[in-house]
Amino acid sequence: MRHLELTDLTRLLRECAGEDEGVDLDGDDVLDTLFLDLGYDSLALLQTTGRIEREYEITLDEEAIDEAETPRKYLELVNRVLSARVTA
């Protein structure tokens, strides 16, 4: 079963929206840091979400994405959809 890992998410964030010089996306505290504090606004997340939907062939709920304010919550959302797809 395919999962989205933090390394996949940070790679896609960098590719879709770049990286703020003052942020270490490889740091240990990234999982629970707000996307805004990491330098990613809603447009950056929208671009990244579109890429994930294409690469993983899934559709993500826009409201749920808005509520996923940290990488941990975002990964949980994506992986829940991926798991549901496998069991369907």
**Strand share of the residues?**
under 5%
The end-to-end span amounts to: 13 Å
* Number of DSSP helical runs: 5
Which bin fits the share of residues in helices?
A: 55-70%
Looking at the structure, what is the overall shape?
Answer: globular
Domain Carrier: 7-82
Keywords: Phosphopantetheine, Phosphoprotein
Protein name: Actinorhodin polyketide synthase
Pfam families: PP-binding
What's this entry about, in short?
The mean pLDDT is 91. 61% of the residues lie in helices and 0% in strands. With 88 residues, the protein is mainly alpha-helical.
Describe this structure in words.
There is one protein chain. By secondary structure, this protein is mostly helical. It has a single domain, classed as ACP-like (Non-ribosomal Peptide Synthetase Peptidyl Carrier Protein, Chain A), CATH 1.10.1200.10. It has five helices and no strands. It has helices at 6-17, 35-38, 42-56, 62-67, 71-87. The longest helix is centred in the last third of the chain and has 17 residues, at 71-87. It is globular. It starts with 5 loop residues before the first helix and ends with a helix. The relative contact order is 0.20. The mean pLDDT is 91.
